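testing teh design pipeline on a random one, pls ignore if ur not involved
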């Protein structure tokens, strides 16, 4: 069984920054994909950024240049550094891990005030 524990969400003013963390525990293959998705009210869940165990990254166009995903394989932890936040970034952010199947965190709220 795999568990994902997220932290770092909160309320921030537009132009500010936040850093999300997600620690994975349990039976995790060394080769895996970790990432962040988000879901705003009334919208579908969308990909924000993903990173392979080798460090290859992919970002949604809407966050390129503002968000940075990274990971610490020794700690099975993925991070999302979010800069230049705007109200459009307000959403529940979910951590995702794909090994032999997909796992999701419980979500952490990010609210950006204008």
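output:
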């Amino acid at each position: 069984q795999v568990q994902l524990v997220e932290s770092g969400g909160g309320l921030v003013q537009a132009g500010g920054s936040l850093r999300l963390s997600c620690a994975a525990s349990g039976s995790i293959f060394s080769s895996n994909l970790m990432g962040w998705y988000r879901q705003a009210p009334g919208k579908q869940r969308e990909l924000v950024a993903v990173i392979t165990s080798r460090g290859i990254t992919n970002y949604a166009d809407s966050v390129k240049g503002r968000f940075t995903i990274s990971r610490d394989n020794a700690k099975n932890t993925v991070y999302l550094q979010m800069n230049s936040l705007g109200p459009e970034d307000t959403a529940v952010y979910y951590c995702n891990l794909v090994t032999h199947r997909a796992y999701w965190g419980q979500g952490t709220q990010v609210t950006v005030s204008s």
